[in-house]
Amino acid sequence: MQILRTPEAQFTNLFEFGFAANYVDISGPGGETMRMHYLDEGPKDGEPILCLHGQPSWSYLYRKMIPLLTKAGYRVLAPDLIGFGKSDKPGAMADYTYARHVDWLGQWLKKMDLSGLTLVCQDWGGLIGLRVAADQIGRFRRIVVANTGLPSTAMISDEMSAFLGQMYPAVPAPDAGMVREQFQSGGPGAFLYWVKYASESPSFSVRDVFGLLSGVTDARILDGYVAPFPDDRYIAGARQFPALVPLLPQHKEDRLANDRAWAVLEAFTGRTLIAFSDADPVTRGGDAIFKARIPGADCVTIKNGGHFLQEDQPAAFSEAIIAFMRQG
Question: Which fold has domain 3-326?
Answer without folding.
Answer: Rossmann fold (3.40.50)
